[in-house]
Amino acid sequence: MPDFSETTDYLYSLRNRGSQYGIERMERFVAALGHPQKQFPVVHVAGTNGKGSVCAMLEALYRENGYKTGLFTSPHLVHLGERVQVDRHPLSMDGIARYTGRLQTVAEDLERESPGSHPTFFEFMAAMAFLHFAESGVDIACIETGLGGRLDATNVVDPGLSIITTISLDHTELLGETLADIAREKAGILKPGRPALIGRLPEEAMEVVCGIAAKRDCPLYTLEQRFPSTSDLPETNLFGAFQRINAGLALQASGILSARFPIHSSEALRQIDWPGRWQTLQASGRTLILDATHNPEGA
Fold first, then answer.
1. CA-CA distance, 53 to 137, in Å (whole number)?
2. Neighbours of 158 (CB within 10 A)
3. How far apart are CA 50 and CA 85, in angstroms?
4. What are the beta bridge partners of residue 161?
5. Within the chain, what is the greatest distance between any pair of CA atoms?
6. Structural contact between residues 62 and 69, judged by C-beta atoms closer than 8 angstroms
7. Is 80 left (phi over 0), alpha (psi -120 to 50) or beta?
8. CB atoms closer than 10 angstroms to residue 108
């Protein structure tokens, strides 16, 4: 069994290769692994903000209703295994070490065959999630994109439903400088003939997403179709009106997939465990609020 410090040193060293934005390496990686990402149903979620919360809410709904769930999100807050969870159990340190040993051999073979093909840190973690979900026999997995959509490493999945939460200016050096450019990248997760759900998008972004959905013959659903006004949105224990929008997307997604994955209760939306999102703690008699954001819309 590899030493875990050696494992993390290796994984984090992959960040030094740079972001290397693109999907070709990931396509070769999962092909060499036997396409584990195709062995379980997927809900694929992109968006400038809210995608992690929607994944957490949808996972909670399915888990509460008896399904075995996979959850892939990023970044982690404390432990690396938070990125890869089955039934909300983070992948253990031993598990990460075992998967890393297996994946490293494949990655090094790919690099020898074609220099520059070694996966990045994020690609490595995504592949680890796909293997873990396949070997754990999950009923459904909620997969969050890392950056953009069209060229994101997670876009090798074949989703039963694609969701775009929000679109605003972020990562413009890679995704484009206008809302239309960014919408085009996010909508790259839409797959021909597969349903798509979109949240409240700016008009410029909405036009692009709707156009791509039409070209790909994707049945398109919008949040307003299910929840015409803010007062109609479901309640959740997470703070903020925007979290009710995320809860609405999760609940609507479960409805779109109800023929295959029926649910009988939505009480899980009031019991979401999603740290670091306006999380209130008490410390030494004082109130401490933990929150994280990385763009103006999130703030």
1. 23
2. 12
3. 19
4. 43
5. 59
6. yes
7. alpha
8. 12
Determine the Cα–Cα distance for residues 248 and 237; give it in Å rounded to an integer.
13
Cα separation, 208 vs 258, whole angstroms: 28
From residue 218, alpha-carbon distances to 42, 70, 159, 265 in Å are 16, 24, 12, 28
Tell the residue number behind the tokens 């307003």, with chain if given.
224
In contact, 43 and 163? CB cutoff 8 Å: yes
Question: 10 Å Cβ neighbour count for 232?
Answer: 12
The answer for 252, left when phi > 0, alpha when psi is -120 to 50, beta otherwise, is alpha
Q: Which residues of 262-291 are buried (b: 16+ CB within 10 A; e: fewer)?
A: ebeebebbeebebeebeeeeeeeeeeeeee
pLDDT at position 20 = 56
Candidates 197, 198, 202, 278; CA nearest to 236 is: 278
Please return the burial class of 103, using the count of CB atoms within 10 Å of its CB with bins 0-12, 13-18 and 19+: buried
Contact 59, 142 (CB under 8 A): yes
Is pLDDT larger for residue 62 or for residue 276? 62
Do the Cβ atoms of 269 and 250 come closer than 8 Å? yes
Helix or strand (DSSP H, E) at 80: none
Residue 75 · residue 64 · CB < 8 Å? no
pLDDT tens per residue across span 31-66: 999 999 999 999 999 998 899 999 999 999 999 999
Q: Which residue is listed with tokens 């009988």? A: 264
In sequence order, the 6+-apart residues with CB closer than 8 A to the CB of 229 are none
Amino acid sitting at position 203:
E
- Convert 2-16 to b/e letters by CB count within 10 Å (16 or more is b): eeeeebeebbeebee
Reported as a single tens digit per residue, the pLDDT across 71-108 is 999 988 889 999 999 999 999 999 999 999 999 999 99
